[in-house]
Task: inverse folding
């Protein structure tokens, strides 16, 4: 409404955020929160199992150092930048919601940031002082202790951000006086944390397992020991990961109900939710299998055997993110703002006057017979483009073709009727916000899309056209009117008090 | 001309929520956290440029080759701090100026998002340069190509940030730009960029002076001919030269700044900041030309003076922004108040939506039921095939002699089929609507 609309008409705007965010989650769980304690433990074992006259087992320590190096390089480049990327992409895909959330939860993010800075400093110190610390036992032990502090700090950042994820979806917290601590009492908080902590450990362990096999030669003692230690780590954490996953899985429907999401009853959610069940079982089983083999017969392990379970472990984490995002729908901020960035409380106004009238950027402030298709295009951009493309991923033409059959020409009346009532049948869809004229303009546009194969470009390529109702000219007149009203009511008060 | 500009100047509504902190505190946090961030960005960029330069010189002089390696090692830490320290100003500017900042970001969205892969690649290239240092000893040109690419990226990326924080100040331009390259040409991006690059070199010079001057730094292990004094002298020279250049770049920025943000406060702040740099430059000049043993003497004073310059410049930057945006923010406030009033009015007086049904009179007595069906049910039910729910023909076979049962189901749908989604209760229907619907449905022949 109030922002130029960035739009990716093939990739789909949500997917931009999803790719960046899921990459970030995979890295921060599997290469930071879960991986660092795994590494510190291995470093510790190097010292414990070292020959009596050496501070640490040199070849073991070198291997562990190289593992840490891989994690360090990836976390401080791709890991850090995808974190920033979530901010940058959310700002252009969903500006109204992220701006609103920052207004209310600034402190939570600020606190999170302070912990983050500490974590970055600690990880840099931990990695860069590694080689030097090998010079004396005292230094080495201090280094290991340091690693444990880093592990704890890493976990703290996760526990804070999980609370942020929670309160973003909790309308009670939103409407009440913004309390950061409400995030911790959201029904999804503990289950999420109970899932993420051990799963991060398992994913970290799997990643370490993979690196151990890459960095060591087949048949060596070093490999056998590395595989065994990775397996012990995974076998200890996997049961907790499984029970955490079940806890979280069970909590999701309740959280959706509590967060006023209506998407829970839909076929779409059910399909994702079911897939989740199979992924939980499949991934855990394979990961446990490779860990048990690693424990009992470490010399039999080949690189090819480890790659798929490692991949699955990461995938396991990724798919939970997809399902978690479903909890919001049709809202982006539960009970306050729909995914189309329009506030629930403004709907009566929009349905009366239309959304085009109040859009800051539109070439058609009002629907006329002459501008129907263009108006429909503008309505699509305002009300639909946050989740739909024209012909790309989750295309609007595609979803209607799924319903009415591929190749059969759309009926404008059919599309209009559906769009008007879709929030009753597809409860993850927000209600159509516009007035009747806009509804029919949109339907005409969608039919036009099917006929012409036309696509739509975002403001980042096409620029914007300012709605004259929302320009400086109009506001100057408005301000004059407001001044006059203020003066009038002041003089009325004066005459009233004079009586 | 003015009226043309006015038509294209948008006045969006502001975010209708309170600021999370008093404005003055948010502004202070913004300026301080931004300055911390930008100093490390300066070091990251300056470090990369110097590494490249030293590596090229290092083709002929082994000491420079080693100097390049030593400088490249600082990039690792500085870049990580630069990124993580960027979050606080990003949060603060989003809290204070979301409409402006996000509008500009959306208008240059392609390049804005491209920051992520570009910076990631630049970082990975600096790691590659560092970790293949020994391996590429026999292929120095390749190593130089790696760091040169990283440098090129680091020299380009600031443009993306500058274009955005520039564009955000000029709502009157939002209707005229389409994408990054058109916004790049707006005043005064290029002068700001030059100012920024000079600053990066100046800050990095001081950093190198300190870094290689530390007692704990084993300088003599790395260099044969170069001495600490040599490097410190060069570092000071770099900072001094860059600072002199700033006395050209600075005025260039001021002369090309659009008028809207000027104020006496701004002039005084900027000129004071520039003035405090002068004694620092004088002291550096003395150190460079004085006795080697005295080169460290005034380092503390120089850093303090130039830090004050930086603080003044950072504050001036904000003053320009605040002054530029104040009139527009007033207009946004008026616009927002009006919208909130209209929205409240509409909420309190909802327009009852009269369903104008399109009734096809050729359908006879079931015409109204057909029209109601079309509007409310056809989204999920077709005549003969499954759409979302079962087809009408199936409804007929279940409820052929049980019109009341059908009406009851429509009123309060149960759940009989596990593989179908739950049918929603259609609260908009009246009893008469359901009667009409039932008549229509049951009139369908199989």
Result:
């Amino acid at each position: 409404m109030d922002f130029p609309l960035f739009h990716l008409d093939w990739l789909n705007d949500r997917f931009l955020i999803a790719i960046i965010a899921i990459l970030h989650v995979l890295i921060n769980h599997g290469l930071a929160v879960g991986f660092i304690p795994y590494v510190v433990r291995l470093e510790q074992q190097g010292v414990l199992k070292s020959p009596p006259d050496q501070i640490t087992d040199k070849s073991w320590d070198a291997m562990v150092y190289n593992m840490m190096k891989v994690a360090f390089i990836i976390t401080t480049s791709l890991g850090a930048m995808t974190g920033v990327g979530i901010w940058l992409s959310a700002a252009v895909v969903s500006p109204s919601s992220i701006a609103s959330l920052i207004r209310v939860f600034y402190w939570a993010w600020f606190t999170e940031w302070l912990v983050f800075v500490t974590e970055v400093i600690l990880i840099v110190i931990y990695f860069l002082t590694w080689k030097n610390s090998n010079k004396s036992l005292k230094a080495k032990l201090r280094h290991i202790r340091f690693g444990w502090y880093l592990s704890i700090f890493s976990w703290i950042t996760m526990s804070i951000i999980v609370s942020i994820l929670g309160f973003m979806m909790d309308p009670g917290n939103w409407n009440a006086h913004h309390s950061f601590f409400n995030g911790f009492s959201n029904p999804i908080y503990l289950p999420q944390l109970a899932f993420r902590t051990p799963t991060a450990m398992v994913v970290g362990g799997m990643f370490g397992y993979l690196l151990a096999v890459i960095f060591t030669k087949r048949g060596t003692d070093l490999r056998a020991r590395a595989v065994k230690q990775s397996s012990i780590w995974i076998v200890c954490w996997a049961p907790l990961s499984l029970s955490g996953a079940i806890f979280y899985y069970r909590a999701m429907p309740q959280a959706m109900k509590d967060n006023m999401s209506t998407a829970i009853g839909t076929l779409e959610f059910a399909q994702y939710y079911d897939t989740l069940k199979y992924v939980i079982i499949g991934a855990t089983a394979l990961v446990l299998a490779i860990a048990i083999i690693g424990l009992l017969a470490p010399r039999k392990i080949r690189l090819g055997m480890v790659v798929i379970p490692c991949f699955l472990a990461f995938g396991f984490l990724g798919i939970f993110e997809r399902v978690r995002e479903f909890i919001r729908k049709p809202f982006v901020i539960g009970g306050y703002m729909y995914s189309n960035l329009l506030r629930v409380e403004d709907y009566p106004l929009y349905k009366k006057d239309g959304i085009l009238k109040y859009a800051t950027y539109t070439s058609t402030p009002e629907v006329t017979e002459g501008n129907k298709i263009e108006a429909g295009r503008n309505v699509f951009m305002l009300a639909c483009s946050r989740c739909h493309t024209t012909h790309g991923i989750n295309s609007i033409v595609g979803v209607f073709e799924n319903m009415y059959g591929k190749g059969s020409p759309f009926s404008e009346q059919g599309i209009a009727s559906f769009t008007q009532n879709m929030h009753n049948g597809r409860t993850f869809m927000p209600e159509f916000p516009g007035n009747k004229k806009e509804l029919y303009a949109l339907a005409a546009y969608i039919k036009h899309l099917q006929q012409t194969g036309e696509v739509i470009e975002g403001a980042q390529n096409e620029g914007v056209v300012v709605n004259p109702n929302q320009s400086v000219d109009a506001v100057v007149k408005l301000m004059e009117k407001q001044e006059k009203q203020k003066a009038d009511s002041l003089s009325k008060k004066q005459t009233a008090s004079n009586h | 001309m003015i009226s043309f500009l006015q038509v294209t100047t948008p006045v969006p509504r502001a975010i209708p929520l309170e600021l999370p902190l008093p404005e003055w505190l948010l502004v202070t946090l913004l300026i301080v956290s931004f300055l911390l961030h930008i100093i490390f960005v300066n070091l990251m960029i300056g470090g990369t440029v110097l590494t490249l330069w030293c590596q090229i010189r290092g083709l002929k002089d082994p000491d420079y080759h080693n100097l390049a390696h030593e400088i490249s090692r600082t990039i690792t830490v500085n870049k990580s701090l630069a990124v993580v320290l960027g979050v606080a100003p990003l949060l603060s500017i989003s809290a204070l100026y979301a409409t402006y900042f996000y509008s500009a970001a959306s208008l240059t969205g392609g390049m804005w998002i491209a920051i992520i892969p570009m910076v990631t690649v630049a970082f990975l290239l600096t790691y590659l340069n560092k970790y293949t240092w020994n391996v590429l000893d026999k292929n120095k040109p390749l190593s130089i190509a790696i760091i040169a690419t990283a440098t090129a990226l680091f020299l380009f990326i600031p443009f993306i940030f500058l274009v955005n924080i520039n564009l955000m100040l000029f709502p009157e331009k939002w209707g005229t730009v389409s994408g990054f390259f058109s916004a790049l040409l707006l005043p005064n991006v290029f002068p700001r960029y030059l100012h920024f690059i000079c600053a990066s070199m100046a800050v990095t010079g001081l950093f190198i002076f300190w870094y290689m001057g530390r007692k704990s730094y084993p300088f003599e292990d790395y260099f044969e001919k170069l001495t600490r004094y040599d490097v410190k002298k060069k570092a000071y020279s770099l900072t001094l030269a860059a600072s002199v250049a700033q006395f050209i770049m600075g005025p260039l920025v001021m002369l090309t700044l659009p008028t809207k943000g000027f104020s006496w406060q701004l002039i005084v702040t900027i000129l004071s900041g520039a003035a405090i740099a002068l004694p620092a430059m004088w002291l550096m000049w003395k150190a460079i030309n004085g006795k080697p043993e005295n080169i460290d003497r005034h380092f503390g004073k120089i850093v303090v003076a130039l830090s004050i310059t930086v603080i003044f410049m950072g504050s001036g930057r904000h003053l320009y922004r605040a002054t530029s945006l104040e009139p527009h923010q007033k207009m946004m406030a008026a616009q927002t108040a009006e919208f909130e009033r209209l929205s409240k009015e509409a909420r309190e007086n909802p327009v009852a939506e009269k369903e104008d049904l399109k009734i096809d009179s050729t359908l006879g007595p079931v015409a109204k039921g057909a029209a109601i069906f079309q509007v409310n049910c056809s989204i999920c039910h077709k005549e003969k095939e499954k759409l979302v729910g079962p087809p009408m023909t199936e409804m007929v076979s279940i409820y052929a002699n049980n019109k009341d049962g059908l009406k009851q189901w429509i009123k309060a749908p149960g759940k009989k089929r596990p593989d179908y989604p739950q049918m929603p209760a259609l609260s908009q229907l009246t009893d008469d609507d359901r009667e009409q619907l039932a008549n229509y449905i049951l009139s369908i022949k199989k």
About this structure: The radius of gyration of chain A is 28 Å.
